[in-house]
Design a protein that fits this description.
2 domains; binds S-adenosylmethionine; single chain; two-stranded antiparallel sheet; alpha/beta; 11 helices
Length: about 270
């Protein structure tokens, strides 16, 4: 098994994966139906022809640029497991900064709170917030029916159907009532951006926005004050490149950095 793993790692490295060993391990564990840690406990386990063929198929998909999460059908985010399909963006560790701030806001408030998650995709922000902040009720929306189907499966998987409600439509338009917190990880990539193939493999509606990437976040910033309760807050994931063109019609705002030190989350309050 170790020899197969070493060969697959070399193959993925040659095809440009920057996390070849990790990818090879995750795919092997998936092909064998075991946890990654078990690969090391059972490193001398022989592989059947069928298992080898399954693994080769997965490695071939990865070397063509398919994201590992699409190949195995799930991804960890905020220490929770999410189902993912090519209809949704793969939850990104950079987005955990936004969720951690949202959970902190909920804990400071220490009472019932209504939150909105705009552009929910797999539902990862809404579900992680509801999971870690039990006083919060979340409405989560998306324009993509296919994405909402995946989000619904994740809501059910995490047993949160009573506290996470899905709505379909453009930005805040389908959301009922006022919110204490509006969260959003909307598309903010400029169409001309040079992206790795595993990013390009994700839905264009989840990645790109007009006006150099700023169009949707700009529209959300303009709409959000009408949907926020008194003292409400907004948290929006951004790329530093769009920050200079954003108008922030709030009393105050600040920007939080991600683990790599990049400006990543705009927090605004009225
Ligand atoms: C960058 S993905 C984020 C998905 C998820 N929130 C996450 O953090 O992994 C953006 C999501 O916004 C949705 N979206 C794009 N335009 C939208 C719009 N005008 N209104 C609502 N959702 C939109 C896309 O379908 C996609 O699911």
């Amino acid at each position: 098994m170790l020899e197969v793993l070493t060969r697959a790692t070399g193959h993925l490295q040659k095809h440009g994966s920057t996390s070849a060993r990790l990818d090879a391990e995750v795919l092997l564990a998936h092909a064998l139906g075991m946890g990654r840690i078990d690969l090391y406990v059972r490193f001398d386990r022989p592989m059947s022809e069928e298992e080898l063929a399954r693994y080769r198929g997965l490695v071939a998909g990865r070397s063509r640029g398919e994201p590992v999460a699409y190949l195995v059908g799930h991804k960890e985010f905020m220490a929770l497991d999410f189902l993912v399909t090519p209809a949704v963006l793969v939850p990104n560790p950079d987005t955990e900064v936004l969720v951690q701030r949202a959970v902190a806001i909920a804990r400071e408030r220490n009472g019932p709170m209504r939150a909105a998650d705009v552009g929910t995709g797999s539902g990862c922000i809404a579900i992680a917030l509801a999971h870690y902040a039990p006083t919060v009720e979340v409405w989560a929306g998306d324009v993509s029916r296919e994405a909402l189907d995946v989000a619904q499966r994740n809501v059910d998987k995490h047993g949160l159907a009573g506290r996470v409600h899905l709505v379909e439509g453009d930005l805040l338009e389908p959301f009922p009532g006022e919110f204490d917190l509006v969260c959003a990880n909307l598309p903010y990539v400029c169409g001309q951006a040079d992206l790795p193939s595993e990013v390009r493999a994700q839905p264009a509606t989840a990645l790109f926005a007009a006006d150099g990437g700023a169009a949707l976040v700009s529209r959300l910033l303009a709409e959000a004050p009408r949907h926020l309760s008194h003292g409400g807050r907004l948290l929006a994931e951004i790329d530093a490149a769009i920050l200079p063109v954003l108008q922030v019609p709030f009393t105050g705002h600040k920007v939080h950095r991600d683990l790599g030190g990049r400006e990543r989350v705009l927090e605004a309050w009225s």
